[in-house]
From TrEMBL:
Binding positions (ATP): 231-238
InterPro entries: DExx_box_DNA_helicase_dom_sf, DNA_helicase_UvrD/REP, HelD_bacillota, P-loop_NTPase, UvrD-like_ATP-bd, UvrD-like_helicase_C
Keyword 4Fe-4S applies: no
Protein name stated in the entry: Helicase
Superkingdom to which the source organism belongs: Bacteria
Pfam families tied to this protein: UvrD-helicase, UvrD_C_2
UniProt keyword terms in alphabetical order: ATP-binding, Helicase, Hydrolase, Nucleotide-binding
Keyword Cell division among record annotations: no
UniProt GO MF annotations: helicase activity
Domain UvrD-like helicase ATP-binding: 210-638
Length: 803
C-alpha cells in the first residue's frame, strides 16, 4: 500500500475516532439525565398516584394512573438502557473501531460501497450512513466468505450479488493504524499469522477479526434443529461456538436473551476459560454449566456420585483389578440407546407388576405400609399410564395423611409435647382463640335476641370452653408441624423406592429380559449386575448409571423439562453418550442443539462418533433437521507440531496445519526420574526465558500429576501449580495437569511428563495421548525414562528432534 493510501486510511480512522468521541460526549449527559429521571419517578411513584378504591370508578381511575406511571417509568428505563448500551459499544469501538473493510459493488448499481467492519455498528449523525458495520450484519459476511471478485450475501429480503473490489484488514491500537493488509484468497493469512503467533492466555479471545469461511458457516447457520461440528484439535470449534452465541444474540435480539442459551462445558475450569469471550464482544454471557453439575443437583442428596473424572481414572488405572472387563462392558451398554429402550420397556412392565414403594414412617412406626401403597397403585384401571397413576397415588397419600393427622392428635406423645411448648406457641394459639371468641360472642348475642323475639329458649348448649379449645388447637398445631416433612416428602415422591426399582433391574439375566421386553444384555452381565447392586447398596452411583437412573426416575415420576431455553451448546460433544443426548433432548424440548467435538479426542469409553452418516447423533432429530460440518484446518499449533500430532491418529492425514513455523517436537530420553526432574526444571526455565508464560506439564492420571508435582518440585522446578478436578479457574503459569482436565484449553508449551509405554500403551490411550500433545501452541516436549510409547515409535523420525 502506498503512503498516500495509508494516509487516507489514517485520516478516515481519525474521522471515525473523532465522531465516536463526540458521540460519547453527547451521550453522557443524556444517559445521566434519563437515569435520574427514572430514579426520580421510582422515588415519587406513589406521590403521583392517589389510591382510592371506594367506588368502581375510583378503582378504575387508580388502576389507570398506576398503569400510566409504570409505562412512563419503563419507557425511561428502556431508553436509559438503550443509550447506555450505545455508550458501551462506542467505548468498545474507540481503541479499534474496525478490523476489516470490503468494497462492494452491487450488481446493477453504479456505486461501490466501502464497508468497514467492527465489533459493533456505528451510524453517522444522519442516522443513515454506517461508519462501521457490526460483524454480524448480513453484509459483513462478505468479508468472511469471499476473496475479491464475484461475491454475494444473504439478506432477509433475498440474495444480493455483486463484485468485491477490495478486501482489507487492519490492526488498530489506541486509535492508531499499526498494520494494513490487502488480502486475496482467505482472510489475511498474515493477520492470522500474527494473531496465532501470540502467547496463550488464561482466557480465550474472540476471533471476529479472522473468522474463516468454514467457521462462518457454522456461526451463521440458523435453520437447523441440530448442528453437528466434527473438527480436528485446534480447529476453532469452541471459538466458533462462542461467536455463534454472539451472532444468535444479535440476530434475534428482539426475542432471544443470553439466559435462554446454555453451554455445557467439559469441566468447571473450562467455564472460566471461555467466560470472557462474550463480554468482550459486548454480549452477556450465556448460562454455563457441566453435565455433572446437573446430575449433582438432582442426585447428590440420595447418592455419593462418581463423576466422569473418577470414572476415567478407573478406566486408566484399574486394568488389573477383578471385574474390570465387566465394568467396561457395563459402561458401554449403559451409554447406549438400547439401554434407554430397555428402561422404557421396564416402565411399561411396571404398570403391570413390580413397583416398589417405601413405608411411610412416623416416629418409628409404619404409618402407611409400602404394601398398601402398592395395592392402591395396582387398584387403578390398567389403562392409566405410569406417571398418572403415581400422581393418583400421591393425591391419595396426601388425603390419607390429612386423615391420619387428625387421628394422631389423640396420641399420648402429643399430650406430652403439650407440656413442653414455649410461650410463643401459646401466644399464637391465644391470639387465634381470641379471634374465635369474638365470633362466639357475636353468635351468643344473636341467639339471645332470637330467643326474645321468638319467645322461646334455645336448646342447652355448652358455653365457649376456652381451655378445651386451647388444648385442641395446640395439639392440632403440634401434629401439623410434625406431619409437614411427611407431606413434603410425599410431594417429592419419596414414597417410591427408586433405588430398589433401579436395583431390581440387576437381579439376573432372565428377570432383566422379562422386565425390559426382552432387551439383549452385554457379555458378563452377571458381574455387571453384581457390581451395580453392590454400589447401589452403598448408596453410591457409578457415573454410567447416573443419567439412566435419573431417566428412570422421570419415567416414573414424570419428566422435568425446561421450556425457557432455546439453544444448547455441547462442547467436547464426543464425550457424551447417546443416552445423555436423548436425555438432553427431552430436558430441553424447545431448544436447538449445537454439538461440537472431535472423535480423535474421544477419551471416554462411552464416546459418540459425531461425523458422517454413521453418526448415531443424526437420528436424534432426524437427517432433515440436522446439519453436519467438518473442520480440518488446525489453528492452534505450529505446523511442525500438527505434523507430529496428526501422525498419531489413524486418519489424521486429513488434518491440515495452518502454516505457522516453529520447532519440531523434542523427544528427551532420561536415565532416571531424578534426571528427568532436573532436566524439566532447566527446560521450564529456558521456556520461560523464551517468553512462554503458560506452560503445562501433562500426565496421564491425577495420581501421576501429584507424583510429578512432588518430584519436579524436589528437582528444582519453581512455582508449579497442581491442577485437580476441583480447581475452579484457569490461570496463567506453569501447571501440572492430568490430560483429561486439559481438554479444550491450550498452552504456549506442553511437556509430556511420561511418554513411555507405562503411561500410553493401549489403543484406548491413543486419543488421550493425542489430546495431551495437541494442547501445545508453540512448543512440545516429550520425556521418558525408558522406552517410547508405541504411538511415538510409529511416528516418522523426521517429524521430531531427539535431544
Ligand atoms: N479464525 C480464527 N482466527 C484466529 N484464531 C483462531 C481462529 N480459529 C481458531 N483460532 C484459535 O485457535 C485456537 C484453538 O481454537 P479452539 O480452542 O476454538 O479450537 P477447538 O477446535 O475447540 O480445539 P480442541 O478441540 O483442541 O479443544 C484458539 O487459540 C483460537 O483462538
Amino acid at each position: 500500500m502506498d503512503s498516500n493510501e495509508w494516509r487516507q486510511e489514517q485520516q478516515r480512522l481519525d474521522l471515525v475516532v473523532g465522531k465516536l468521541e463526540a458521540r460519547i460526549v453527547e451521550l453522557e449527559p443524556k444517559i445521566s439525565q434519563l437515569r435520574e429521571q427514572a430514579a426520580d419517578i421510582r422515588k415519587r411513584f406513589w406521590d403521583e398516584v392517589t389510591v382510592n378504591t371506594s367506588t368502581d370508578e375510583d378503582f378504575e381511575e387508580t388502576f389507570f394512573t398506576i398503569n400510566q406511571q409504570t409505562a412512563v417509568l419503563s419507557e425511561r428505563e428502556r431508553s436509559h438502557g438503550r443509550l447506555l448500551q450505545q455508550w458501551k459499544n462506542m467505548n468498545r469501538l474507540l481503541p479499534s473501531p474496525y478490523f476489516g473493510r470490503v468494497d462492494f459493488q452491487e450488481e446493477g448499481q453504479g456505486i461501490t460501497e466501502q464497508v468497514y467492519i467492527g465489533v459493533s455498528s456505528f451510524v453517522d449523525a444522519d442516522g443513515l450512513s454506517f461508519l462501521v458495520y457490526d460483524w454480524r450484519t448480513p453484509m459483513a459476511s462478505l468479508y468472511y466468505d469471499y476473496p475479491p471478485g464475484e461475491a454475494a450475501f444473504e439478506t432477509p429480503g433475498g440474495r444480493i450479488t455483486g463484485t468485491m473490489k477490495l478486501k482489507r484488514q487492519y490492526q488498530i491500537r489506541d486509535g492508531h493504524l499499526h498494520n494494513v493488509f490487502d488480502s486475496s484468497i482467505t482472510i489475511g493469512d498474515q493477520l492470522l499469522q500474527q494473531v496465532l503467533g501470540q502467547g496463550a492466555d488464561a482466557q480465550m479471545k474472540s476471533i471476529v477479526g479472522t473468522i474463516q469461511k468454514e467457521q462462518n458457516a457454522i456461526i451463521r447457520n440458523d435453520n437447523s434443529q441440530m448442528l453437528i461440528v466434527q473438527g480436528a484439535a485446534g480447529s476453532g470449534k469452541t471459538s466458533a461456538a462462542l461467536q455463534r452465541v454472539a451472532y444468535l444474540l444479535y440476530k434475534h435480539r428482539e426475542r432471544l436473551t443470553a439466559d435462554q442459551i446454555v453451554l455445557f462445558s467439559p469441566n468447571p475450569m473450562f467455564n472460566s476459560y471461555v467466560s470472557t469471550v462474550l463480554p468482550e464482544l459486548g454480549e452477556e454471557n450465556m448460562q454455563q454449566t457441566t453435565f455433572q453439575e446437573y446430575l449433582d443437583n438432582w442426585l447428590a442428596s440420595t447418592f455419593r456420585l462418581e463423576d466422569p473424572f473418577d470414572q476415567i481414572e478407573y478406566v486408566l488405572t484399574e486394568q488389573q483389578t477383578l471385574g474390570y472387563e465387566a465394568r467396561m462392558n457395563g459402561i458401554q451398554y449403559k451409554a447406549s440407546k438400547a439401554y434407554l429402550q430397555a428402561l422404557r420397556g421396564y416402565s411399561l412392565w411396571l404398570v403391570k407388576e413390580g413397583m416398589r414403594f417405601d413405608d411411610i414412617r412416623f416416629r418409628d412406626r409404619v404409618l402407611i405400609p409400602g404394601e398398601q401403597i402398592k395395592e392402591k397403585f395396582y387398584s387403578y384401571d390398567s389403562s392409566i399410564r405410569l406417571t398418572n397413576r403415581i400422581a393418583l397415588v400421591q393425591k391419595w397419600l396426601l388425603q390419607e395423611l390429612t386423615r391420619l393427622e387428625k387421628e394422631e392428635q389423640e396420641a399420648s406423645w402429643v399430650q406430652e409435647e403439650l407440656n413442653y411448648l414455649d410461650s410463643e406457641q401459646y401466644a399464637e394459639v391465644f391470639n387465634m382463640l381470641h379471634k374465635e371468641q369474638g365470633v362466639f360472642d357475636f353468635a351468643e348475642k344473636y341467639a339471645r335476641i332470637y330467643e326474645i323475639l321468638h319467645n322461646q329458649r334455645r336448646p342447652d348448649e355448652s358455653d365457649f370452653d376456652f381451655a378445651e379449645r386451647e388444648e385442641e388447637l395446640l395439639s392440632r398445631m403440634i401434629v401439623k408441624e410434625e406431619f409437614k416433612p411427611l407431606r413434603r416428602s410425599v410431594k417429592q415422591f419419596s414414597f417410591i423406592d427408586m433405588v430398589g426399582l433401579y436395583s431390581q433391574l440387576f437381579r439376573d439375566e432372565a428377570a432383566y429380559r422379562e422386565m425390559t421386553n426382552e432387551a439383549e444384555v452385554p457379555e458378563l452381565w452377571a458381574e455387571i449386575c453384581r457390581q451395580t447392586q453392590e454400589k447401589l447398596g452403598r448408596k453410591e452411583l457409578y457415573y454410567e448409571d447416573a443419567t439412566p437412573y435419573l431417566y428412570l426416575k422421570e419415567l416414573v415420576e414424570g419428566a422435568r423439562t425446561n421450556t425457557q431455553v432455546r439453544h444448547i451448546f455441547i462442547d467436547e460433544g464426543q464425550d457424551y453418550s447417546m443416552f445423555q443426548y436423548e436425555f438432553l433432548k427431552r430436558l430441553f424440548p424447545r431448544a436447538r442443539m449445537t454439538v461440537l467435538g472431535d472423535f480423535g479426542q474421544a477419551i471416554f469409553t462411552q464416546a459418540t462418533n459425531l461425523h458422517g452418516m454413521d453418526s448415531p447423533l443424526i437420528q436424534l432429530y432426524g437427517e432433515a433437521a440436522t446439519s453436519q460440518f467438518l473442520l480440518i484446518r488446525s489453528y492452534r499449533s505450529t505446523r511442525p507440531i500438527v505434523e507430529f500430532t496428526k501422525s498419531l491418529l489413524p486418519g489424521g492425514d486429513a488434518i491440515v496445519p495452518f502454516d505457522r513455523s516453529g520447532r519440531k517436537p523434542s523427544l528427551l530420553k532420561m536415565e532416571c526420574s531424578e534426571k528427568r526432574a532436573e532436566r524439566i526444571a532447566a527446560d521450564l526455565a529456558a521456556l520461560q526465558a523464551e517468553g512462554c508464560t503458560s506452560i503445562a506439564v501433562i500426565t496421564k492420571t491425577a495420581a501421576e500429576s501429584r507424583e510429578a508435582y512432588e518430584t519436579l518440585t524436589a528437582g528444582g522446578s519453581k512455582e508449579l501449580w497442581l491442577i485437580t478436578k476441583n480447581t475452579p479457574t484457569f490461570e496463567k503459569g506453569t501447571l501440572v495437569i492430568p490430560a483429561y482436565l486439559a481438554k479444550g484449553v491450550e498452552f504456549d508449551a506442553v511437556l509430556i511428563y511420561d511418554a513411555s509405554p507405562q503411561s500410553f500403551d493401549r489403543e484406548s490411550e491413543r486419543k488421550l495421548f493425542y489430546t495431551a500433545c495437541t494442547r501445545a501452541m508453540h512448543r512440545l516436549l516429550l520425556y521418558t525414562t525408558g522406552e517410547w510409547t508405541p504411538f511415538v515409535q510409529a511416528v516418522d523420525p523426521s517429524l521430531y528432534e531427539l535431544v
